[in-house]
Amino acid sequence: MSDSMLAGQFFDAAIGLLERVRDEEAGPIAAAGAAIADTVEAGGRLFAFGAGHSSLAAQDVVYRAGGLALMNLLAVPGTLGVDVMPATLGSALERVEGLAGAVLDSSPAGAGDLLVIISLSGRNALPVEMAVNARALGLKVIGVTSVVYADETRSRHVSGGFLRDHCDIVIDSKIAIGDAELTTKGVEAPFAPASTVVTSAVMQAMMATAAERLVERGIEPPLLRSGNVDGGHEWNGRVMAEYADRIFYRH
């Protein structure tokens, strides 16, 4: 069996996007990592939010071996992806105004905390209002989005604004409108999205920067170890006990 030409093209496209983000977004990623370190040092709490497939990158940094124990998922029921039936309900909920405010008001997030909001298009009511309401509550907001959507599409929020308009720090994922990297003869629709690969890499780069900044300040980063290595459970138990008041996925 010959190697797949399209598989190679996808890897090339993904690598190209990763290199662009590494080189062009180094400043915002460094600022985001420093903001996370500031929040950890000051005793604040960390949250990540994404709807639909954007939630995958948010989930990727929560309760993760090698990740910061303090990162919590800010979940909006029905919007995490294909966990609801019909799956199209999740997309519909992203357009519901007022939902973000209700979720934040009933969450533990408050002044002095930090929220990373991931939204590829940044055009729906849910991520826009999540950013607006979070800042009003006194949270620092980091947005991970594709800025080209704000340049070439129309907002679905009543304000006419996009996620990028309501963040303290914006990281541009560089993903093209439509999120599909490949086309080929005989296939009508473009395919092979790369947003999850790129956005997850952005999130891990932020976490790595935060760990680096904390070490520079003489603070041991509260990292989790794999439960599949000897001593991992004991290590994680100590970290979770020390930071129990800032970890919300255990209770």
Automatic annotation (TrEMBL):
Q: Name one Pfam family in it.
A: SIS_2
Extent of the signal sequence? none
> What InterPro entries is this protein classified in?
SIS_dom, SIS_dom_sf, SIS_GmhA/DiaA_subfam, UPF0309
Fetch the SUPFAM superfamilies from UniProt: SIS domain
- Indicate the segments forming the SIS domain, all copies: 36-221
Q: Which family does it belong to?
A: Belongs to the UPF0309 family.
HAMAP family linked: UPF0309
Q: What name does UniProt use for this protein?
A: UPF0309 protein ACFFTL_45445
Organism field: Streptomyces yanii
